[in-house]
Amino acid sequence: MILFIGAFAIMIMSAANKWANDASPIRSVDTFDANVESVQLDHGRGIYLVSIENGSSVLIDDDRPHLIGSRTSIERVTRDNGFVFYRFVS
After folding, report:
1. What is the rounded CA–CA span in Å between residue 32 and residue 45?
2. Is the whole-model pTM more than 0.85?
């Protein structure tokens, strides 16, 4: 029972954190060239491993298909609260 309550509390805290990040305004958006390295599909959504031109790699969750090995542009989005995430350019 304690394990169940602990898991539920963690889920609530995680959801509250996501809501706070979604509500925070965007401070900056930077665009980078990148290569799509691999994808893990999950119920119509893909989690893409993308390597940026400076040598680092990031994971991007997207529901649009992207060809493995293709060149693409991605954006690094920074919110006012300091939260950073990456997305494919629309």
Report:
1. 22
2. no
